[in-house]
Structures are given as structure tokens and as C-alpha cells.
Amino acid sequence: MIETLEALAGLMRQDGAVRIYAKKLAPNDNSKNQVYLGGDFSALNIIPHGAVTTDDAEIAGSVRDRAKAPIRFLWIDESGRYEAPNAQLILYPKYPEVRMSGFLKGANLKGARDAPGDVMRVRDEGRVLFLGITQDGTVLGHAVPATSPLARALEVRSDLEPLGVFLEIPAEPAAGSTRAQLLATLEAIYRRHWIPSQKLNKYGVKQPYAARNGGGYTLEAELGISPNGYSEPDYLGWEIKQYAVTDFNAYRPTSVVTLMTPEPTGGFYRDNGAEAFVRRFGYPDKSGKPGRINFGGIYASTKVFHADTGLQLRMTGYDMAAGKITDMDGGIALVDRHGEIAALWKYPGIIEHWSRKHAQAAYVPSLYRTPPPEYRYGARILLCEKTDLTLFLRAIADGTVYYDPALKIEPATGLKRRSQFRIRHDQLVRMYHQSELVELDVAHSA
Predict the structure, then answer these.
(1) 358: buried, middle or exposed (CB in 10 Å: 19+, 13-18, 0-12)?
(2) Topology (CATH) of 5-175
(3) How far apart are CA 30 and CA 34, in angstroms?
(4) Quick one: average pLDDT of 18-47?
């Protein structure tokens, strides 16, 4: 029997866990009622999952009431690992909420003991579900009853950081919280002052980088970050985002924030291709470049039809007053004056893209100078936690988040496409339930 949180963390680290969470189970958290993961979609940014699909089964009279996404889930204990091949997340957009189901069905390995059905089938108070997240997106599970040493050890801990319905357990207990480790590392980078522009190669070796977009690569190289298998690069579970500023006094950003860059999954764009879309809805280059056709502009739900393209941004299958999805076949749409959908980003695809963002993010300001190309990182760090798709959709609905495409066709190079949903930096905190501006301890910095 595993008796301490440190021993559990060690076991999960052996199986590749880089982040560990605990969920105190309520009576309704069981194999019959599913495990409740929160009254929003923030759990999707904590638990890695596969493609989001709408459920073909009829639920409450409609096939559009929910969606699901598979999880690669393994139960682990001191005797081994046991795959749960039917584990999945269930999304109920009309509430909204996320639940986990299928975590016991078929969960055994070549006659080995069943997964912890004695814990997960009952309604006892005080049970705990521990989840370990690996770098490749596997979820490791370990469940204990209320009478276990692990449940009692968790109950007396008051220092663990909450994240939605979870408590975060340090994967390296002696190192402290991931927040403290992150800030200490960013402070050390701040104290380095000007750092040569660089980028990690595929072997994790720093190499000089001359292009102008090296701010993020240089910071990631200093943090030792390499992209992982299922989401954006992170440091101890925190997504790290660098942004350029004019100086370290006003910290005024030089550009807006790109939240995500999904391709449309419906409408004329999907049916006929991006090139046909640009030729139909685009316009001749305004600087006079011969043969070039552009599709650009700003599209927000509060704006009228665009003068150059004749399109307007709208949301379908969404209750703006309630802030909820009502039809999973709907989405964010560009429509023309006749109501034809020129491009559609369906909700399952939007959910998948948004869930690649981490539940925790640190936004780090930078300065640039050349020659040679160098970056310096500031002491004022914006820490944001608990991102949630519902916040993104509300911001689309009120025009805070907007579509800012950059598609073009040129005779020499052909089609270039870039679909971007963006937000002003000063509105960024609206994408998270919690945010804090932290000044690093720079007393010893020159």
C-alpha cells in the first residue's frame, strides 16, 4: 500500500508523470454517475484528450446535447499498470460541465486484478482520485478510500494549490510549488540581462537564431522547453508566452495577442477550399501588386458587414444571454448578406484548439536590440490560471475577441493562409478565471 503523497509522486514520476492532481470525490463521483470535473470547460485544459466528437446516441431527445473525447488512461499501483481503454471525457455544453466516464470498463491486464472498482463504484465520502499527467498526454490514475493513509495525508495538507476542482501536488515535493519554481527561474533569467537570440534544435541544444521572431524561442531555450506531444510548450505545467514591449517602465505591448489559429471546419471554405474562398470573397491588393488577391480585415461580432469582403462574424448555436452552446453543430461563422456561411469553425474543433492551451500561463515581457540580435526579459510577470472555453466564447460574442485573417494569392507563390483569433493584451485576463501581476524580487539585480 502507498502510504505517503511523496511515495505516490515518486511512483507516478517513474511512469512519466510531470504534473499530479488530486480530486476529492463526492458521493455522485462514481462509475454510475461519472466523475464531475467542474461546472465549466476548464478541465479540458488540465486533462489531455483526443479528438472532440458529438455523441451519436440520442440524449434527452437530441443528438446535439453533448460531446465526448477519449483519454489514454492507465490505473497504476505498486503492482503495475492497468489500461482503461474506454475512459473518456463527456462535455455537457448546456450546463456547462465536464465529466469523466468509462474508467472501469475493461480496465484489467491479462487477468490482473480489476481497476479500483471497490473505490470508484461506491458513494462513500472522503474517497480521493489522483491523476498524473505525462509528457505525451497519458493520464495515470490512482484511487483510494477515505480510510487510506493517502486520503488522510491529503486532508491535513493546507499548502496545496487549487486548480478548478483539483488540488495540485508537486511532482518533486522537495522543490516546492510549480509557481514558486517558475518565478525563481524567471527571476534568474531577468538577472541575465541581454541574452543572445537562440533556439533549441531537435536535440535540445541551443543554437543562434537570427530571425526577428526569436523572443519566444530564446526564452524557451533558457527554460529548457521543448514542445510536447499534445499541447503547447510548457515549463512545469505552465504555458510560457513572451510578448514584446516598448520599455520596462510602461510595459506597453507592441502587438495584440493571437489566441489560436484554427482552420475553418465548415462552410464554403471547407467545401471548396481556401483558394476558392479567397477568389470569391477576397479583393485585389490595395497597394497595387499585380495579380495579388487578399482576404484580410477585422471581423468582430459587433461589426457590420466588411466593406471589402461582404462578410460578417456571427455565432450560431449559441445562447449569448446565457453564455452557453445550444447546438454542437454550430460555431463561429463568417456569413454573407444572403445568409450563406462562407466559413465556419464548428464547436468541436474550437474546443480541441482551445484545450491545447494550459490551465496555467505566464506572460513575460521582452525587449529586443540588434546587432547582434539579443533579448532581455522583464520583471513584471502576468500569471493567469484556469482558462476556460466559455470565457473565450463570451468574448467572441461581445466582440472582445475578433477574427484577423491574412490570406492571399500571389501569381509567383500561390496561396498563403493564416486564420487568427486575436485579443488586445489589456483584455487578456478575460480568458482566465484568475490572474495576478507579479513583480519579481529584483533587489539584487543591477
Answers:
(1) buried
(2) At1g16640 B3 domain (2.40.330)
(3) 5
(4) 94
The dihedrals phi and psi of 6, each to the nearest 5 degrees, come to -65, -40
Element (H, E) at 361: strand 360-369
- The per-residue pLDDT for range 255-281, each reduced to its tens digit, is 999 999 999 999 999 999 999 999 999
Other Cβ atoms closer than 10 A to 232: 14
Q: Which three cell numbers stand for residue 281?
A: 470573397
Nearest-angstrom CA–CA distance, 51 and 349: 8
User: What residue has cell string 491588393?
Assistant: 285
Mean local confidence (pLDDT), 315-341: 95
Q: Please state whether the predicted TM-score (pTM) of the whole model is above 0.70.
A: yes
Which residues, 6 or more positions from 111, have their beta carbon under 8 angstroms from its beta carbon?
none
In three-state secondary structure terms, 267 is helix
Classify domain 177-446 by CATH architecture.
2-Layer Sandwich (3.30)
Which residues lie across from 293 on neighbouring strands? 284, 409
The residue among 344, 326, 324, 327 whose CA lies nearest residue 335 is 344
- CA 48: distance to chain centroid? 9
Q: Please list, residue by residue across 183-216, b when 16 or more beta carbons sit within 10 angstroms of its beta carbon and e when fewer do.
A: bebbbebbeeeebebbbbeeeeeeeebeeeebbb
Whole-angstrom distance, CA of residue 335 vs CA of residue 312: 5
Longest dimension (CA), the chain: 76
What is the C-alpha to C-alpha distance for residues 429 and 234, in angstroms, rounded to an integer?
19
Residues linked to residue 377 through DSSP beta bridges, in sequence order: 366
| C-alpha closest to that of 98 among 71, 135, 134, 58 | 71
Q: Each residue of 345-400: pLDDT tens digit?
A: 999 999 999 998 889 999 999 999 999 999 999 999 999 999 999 999 999 999 99
Same fold for the pair 5-175 and 177-446: no
CA distance 47 to 130: 12
Q: Any idea where the domains of the chain sit in the sequence?
A: 5-175, 177-446
- pLDDT, position 356: 87
CA-based radius of gyration for the chain: 24
